[in-house]
Amino acid sequence: MHRVLHAFADPFAFRQALPDIWSGFLINVHMMVIAEALVLVLALLMAIVRGLPGRGAKPFRGLAILYTDFFRGTPLTIVAFACILGLPGLGYSVVKNASSEALGVVALTIVYTAYVTEVYRAGIESVHGSQRMAARSLGLSYMQAMRYVVLPQAIRRVIPPLLNDFIGLQKDTAIIGAIGVTEAAAQGTNFANSYFNFTGYLVGAVFFVYLTIPLARYTDHIIRERERRERAAMV
Amino acid sequence: MSAQPFVSLKGVTKRFGDLEVLRRVDLEVKEHNVVCLIGASGSGKSTLLRCINLLERVEEGEIVVDGQLVTNGKVDVNALRRKIGIVFQAYNLFPHMTVLQNVSLGPRKVRGLDRQQTRATAMELLVRIGLEDKADEYPDRLSGGQQQRVAIARALAMNPKVLLLDEITSALDPQLVSEVLNLVRSLTEVGMTMIIATHEMSFAREVSDKVCFLDAGVICEQGPPDQIFSNPTEPRTREFLKRIIEAGRL
């Protein structure tokens, strides 16, 4: 037991590893914030395309379905390797000089957009058809009904599952560390290589947990609030 | 009053799969007239209303609204629906918007009026329906009757030329029915053209210029309310009214 504690939770090593792990963790946070912002927008567009009515939109619907099916099923590690190691080799100036961190964000965005598209779609489908009908019968167009009536209700409903996916995304930024970005997990490995001690990983873990707990509690709070309101509405 | 009917249906047939919900329906509604559709649930009243504003597509027949043929697939649906207000049985207010926002959405986004203008007109409408003090409440804080009055105001805010009312009191507690019917009555007094699907027989008798009895997707009998309610010629109309009277609803 003593040996385990010494290897993974040594107080002295903890303090020693803190600065480097922290600077690595800032990279995790950075990647996460940018990827989340991109995912929120792209997945919404993808969900709207997936729901477009009519025969003319069929090819677009098909592409959106193909995209979500493919990237929801592909491990992030594979997409990350492909982006970070593969994209610069294409020779396009946009990606040739891109940092591994930026390419990691691309990988995270590609994979998580597929997940979050499905979350949005579930939200859109949960809004009762009579709402769209009421909007359309006022003379609003399909997109106006979507924008002013369906989406505001849909998005409110999917905030808890969205936050849940974002907790997953936060943690998955560490996978990018395995492919050449010195974020928190990679810094932990560096520390272990220099000092033969793995406490650096614990430091990283603590940072991640500190970041996810407020999100998790906030999610709980939103769910509770909604239940309270729905009970009140039923009275 | 113009001689041309404002809304006319000729041989309208609507199917859901194999089921014919409307069969060769003919109906004319003159401007400023009130036409009530009566009949059992499932007789096609709601579907008939939904065909008029193209929420449902008809398989056969023609519908003309305000001199415009709307069933040829070429009509601008959104422009047509501006002229035709509809109020639903389940109110269908937008739960994420306040009462005022519910009433203003159409004028702002469809008619393109500015915020102040729509706010003023919406408030006028809320005064008219007696709910000006609820302007900033969300629909879930309102009673069913109040919600339905807001739904009527939302339809009126578009300045429709005809109003379709789809069993608008059927979901209400009995004590809330009259406040909604009173509002509809006030609309008849200002000459609003209306087509009303309803189970409120006394009300239909009181406000209609014409009553249509629907049975299994067919307009079985139509005529002035006194004739339909006191002197129906069709056996099915008689049978229906007999059951209504037995149930104490007329």
- Strand proportion of chain A: under 5%
Rounded radius of gyration of chain A (Å):
22 Å
Poorly predicted runs of chain B are none
Helical residues, percent of chain A: over 70%
Topology of chain B as a string of helices (H) and strands (E)? EEEHEEHEHHHEHEHEEHH
The coarse silhouette of chain A is flat
Question: What percent of the residues of chain B sit in helical stretches (DSSP H or I)?
Answer: 25-40%
Q: Given the helix and strand composition of chain B, which structural class is it? A: alpha/beta
What is the H/E order of chain A?
Answer: HHHHHHHHHH
Oligomer: heterodimer
Largest sheet composition of chain A: none
What's the count of strands of chain A? 0
Distinct helical segment count of chain B: 9
Biggest sheet character of chain B: 6 strands, mixed
In whole angstroms, the N-to-C terminal distance of chain B is: 31 Å
Largest interface: A-B, 20 and 24 residues
Please give a handful of descriptors for the protein shown.
heterodimer, A: 235 residues, mainly alpha, 85% helix, B: 250 residues, alpha/beta, 6-stranded mixed sheet, globular
